[in-house]
Amino acid sequence: MTRLVPSIVDTISNLPGVSFRRVRDSSRIGSTVSLLSVTLMAVVMLSFIPMQAGSDYEQDKRDWDAARPAEALALLQAALRQLQAEQEKLRNEQEKLQAEREKLRLEQERSAEEENLRNEQEKLQAERERLRLEQERLAEQKAEQERLAEQRAEQERVRLLLAEQERLRAQKAEQERLRQLYSDGKEFRDCDGCPVMVVVPAGKFRMGSPASERSRNPSEGPLHEVTIAQPFAAGKYEVTFDQWDACVSEGGCSHVPHDAGWGRGNRPVINVSWHDAGEYVDWLSDKTGKRYRLLSEAEWEYAARAGTRGPFHFGRTISTDQANYRGFYTYGGGSPGVYRARTVSVGRFLGNAFGLHDVHGNVWEWVEDCWHGNYQGAPSDGSAWTSGGDCEVRVIRGGSQGSRPKDIRSAIRSGNVAENRNKSNGFRVGWSIAP
User: Fold this and answer.
1) What pLDDT band is residue 322 in, cutting at 50, 70 and 90?
2) What is the mean pLDDT of residues 405-428?
3) Which of 95, 261, 293, 339 is the most exposed place for a label (fewest CB within 10 A)?
C-alpha cells in the first residue's frame, strides 16, 4: 500500500495536461477532490477485501501487489479523464463567460454610445428648439420694427402732408395778400430810384406772328399758345441812366456805359450787355429783398401785346407820334414821320393796355432766353427758354430808335451776343409776384 500511493500520485502528475496546481487553480477543486477521495477509498477498500475474507495477509499483499494496482490506476485514470473533461468544460464555460462579458461590455459601450447619441440628439433638438424660438423672436422683433417703421413713415407722411397743406394754405394766403397788394395794373416802386413796376395779369395768348402778317420773319413761328399762369410785374419803362448810375454808385454795377452823346438822366440806358443787365437785377434784388430778373421772351411779348393780336398794340400800323423809330419808313399804310436818330426819355409816348411804355422802338430790350431760330419746341408756360439753342447769343425784343417800323412789331425778335454792348440795346426788368 505504501508503494501504491506514490505510484498513484506519479501517475496523476504524469497525466498529460493535469497538475495539482491546475487542480488547485480550478474553481471546481471541491468536486475534483471528492472524486479523487472516492477513488482512493475504493483502492483502500479493495486492499482490505482479502483481509476481511480471512486470507493470509502476506498472500493477500502479494496478490494486491501483483493484481490490483492496474485496476486502481485504471480507475484513477478514468477519474482524471473525467477531471480533464470537467476542466475542459470549465475552460469552455470560462471562455463563454468571457465572451459573454465581452459581449456585455460591448453592449454596454454600445448602450453608452447610444445614450451619448441620444443625449446629443436631445441637445441638438433643444438647440433647434432654441433657434426656432430665437427665429420666432427675431421675426416678431423684425415685424415689430417694420410696423414701427411703417408707423413712423405714416406719421412722417401725415406730417409732410400737413406741412404741405399748411404751406399751400400759407402760399394761398400770401398769393391773396399779394393779389390784393399787387392787383392787376397796379403800379409800385420798391425804393427811391428803383424802376416803376406794373402788375401784368395772368392769361393766355398766341405767341409769334401769323403767316399773313406783313414782313413776318421765319423766326417768329410757328404760332403757338402760351399760358401765363400767375401774374407778374414788369418795368413800366425801360431802365434809365439815372437808375443804372444808382447801381454803379452803390457798387452793384461795374460798368459805366457811354450815352453816345444823347444824354443820360431819364433816357433808357444803352451800351449795356446781357451780363451787365444781370448785374443790375442782382443788385436790385439784394437791395429790395425781392426776386428781380429779366423778363422771359414769352412774358415780354405777352406784356407788349397787352391782349392785342396785330403787328402793334396800337393796331395795324404805327406812327412816330406813338413810338421812336426810323420814321421816314412806313408800315401797313401808315404815314411817314420824323427820325430822331437818338433815344428819347422813357414814358414820352402812350402806354399799352397793361400800362407798359416804349415796347415799340427806342431801344432793343434784353430778355432771359437763349437764341433759337424759331419756336419749334418752345415752352408753353411762359418760362425762359434756356436749354438748347445758342446761349452765347441772347434774345432782344422791341426794336430801337434806328429800326424800321417792320422791325418794331410786337412779334419781332432778334439775337445779339450776350457780351455785346451797343447804343441800340437796353433792357426792362421783371419780378415774380408769386411767393
Assistant:
1) very high
2) 98
3) 261
Residues 33-36: contacts with CB under 8 Å, at least 24 apart = 35/79, 35/82, 35/83, 36/76, 36/79
What tens digit of pLDDT does each residue of 122-175 get? Answer: 999 999 999 999 999 999 999 999 999 999 999 999 999 999 999 998 888 877
Residue with the bigger pLDDT between 343 and 56: it is 343
The three-state DSSP-derived secondary structure of the chain is CCCHHHHHHHHHHHCCCCCHHHHHHCCCHHHHHHHHHHHHHHHHHHHHHHHHCCCCHHHHHHHHHHHHHHHHHHHHHHHHHHHHHHHHHHHHHHHHHHHHHHHHHHHHHHHHHHHHHHHHHHHHHHHHHHHHHHHHHHHHHHHHHHHHHHHHHHHHHHHHHHHHHHHHHHHHHHHHHHHHHCCCCCEECCCCCCCCEEEECCEEEEECCCCCCCCCCHHHCCCEEEEECCCEEEECCCCEHHHHHHHHHCCCCCCCCCCCCCCCCCCECCCCCHHHHHHHHHHHHHHHCCCEEECCHHHHHHHHHCCCCCCECCECCCCCCCCECECCCCCCCCCCCCECCCCCCCCCCCCCCCCCCCCCECCEEEEEEEECCCCCCCCCCCCCCCCCCEEEEEEEECCCCCCCHHHCCCCCEEEEECCCCCCCEEECEEEECCC
The residue written with cell numbers 409800385 in the block is: 188
pTM value is 0.64
The string of pLDDT tens digits covering residues 128-139 is: 999 999 999 999
Domain with CATH 3.90.1580.10 in the chain: 187-432
217 — pLDDT class (breaks 50, 70, 90): very high
* Interatomic CA distance for residues 373 and 219, integer angstroms: 5
Cα 117 → chain centroid? 50
Q: How far apart are CA 316 and CA 231, in angstroms?
A: 27
**Nearest residue to 274 (alpha-carbon basis) of 369, 150, 146:** 369
The topology (CATH level 3) of 187-432 is: paralog of FGE (formylglycine-generating enzyme) (3.90.1580)
